[in-house]
Amino acid sequence: MKLANPWLLLLLVVVPLWLWWERRTAQRGGLKFSSVAGAQSVASFWTRLGPTLLLVLRGATLVLFVVSLARPQLGRSESKIKAEGIDIVLVLDISGSMQALDYEKRGQRASRIDAVKEVVREFIRTRTNDRIGMVVFGTRAYVASPLTLDHDWLERNLDRVKIGLVEGNTAIGAGIGTAVNRLRDTKAKSKVIVLLTDGGENVKTPPAMEAAKAAKEFGVRVYTIGAGSQGLAPMPVMDGAGNVLGYQQIPVDLDENLLKQIATLTGGQYFRAADTKSLKNTYDQIDAMEKQKVETVVFEEWRELFPWFLVPGLGCLLLAVTLEHTRLRRLP
Predict the structure, then answer these.
(1) pTM over 0.70
(2) Superfamily for 85-292?
(3) CA dist 188 to 11, 130, 236, Å?
(4) Residue 280: is its pLDDT beyond 70?
(5) How far apart are CA 282 and CA 119, in angstroms?
(6) Per-domain residue ranges for the chain?
């Protein structure tokens, strides 16, 4: 419920003052007697409480009239959001080198894949009105999630992503091509691929630049992210049971030139994410660059409630006037 003219409620401040003045004025009249004991013994209900009842009725009349002037309204307001859709496919490298421990997660050393999954999860949660899909790749690529607005389900699929789901090489072209196939026939105003990899292209089926040309042909913009530290990175050495035996330093073989060419060709941008902080900043920047246009239309429907206060107010006024000229009539 709301009031159309709430400022009129300030008039209620006058009501107590008016009641005080009326009561003070009413006490001035009357006849003087040496003793009122006899009159009090025969006083009726009307003579004892009548003046107070009139005062209450008049006060109630004023309060109800003021509230009705403020126009209380009961109704509902409905908002509809009209958003220009953006379809996004997240393409993640899950080759063996993504196990390198050159990132941090809550102050502890973390693998690239674990840090990436945490940052990607935050990115998904910021894009509430977008359809998002996910492709993972190693030697080959597969769809981990089709385009969907069910981001809870998308996050559950992200949890299932791990190293070893596919062979451990780096087929960047396969990752882009698979993502383009998910986007080519969509009706979205904007189509975006966010590709993250930590290695150079060592499997060319298809070549990455050919896949990038296909992306450009279908109006898909590709943002590329180079993950991992510079130089050498610590890689865990495990036994057959998955226990860590130690660490060995592996060289970072990231092909930044290729990633820059892919981004430039498709109208995207290349980012270098050497640590957890820069990784998060990268996804934040992409989120800011790919903001959708949202139009909010508000519908309101309100029902006037002032008659519910005006009618009782008129009733109190009518009753007060009737009593004042009948049972509670005062002699001059």
Answers:
(1) no
(2) von Willebrand factor, type A domain (3.40.50.410)
(3) 56, 10, 42
(4) yes
(5) 10
(6) 2-27+41-76+301-324, 85-292
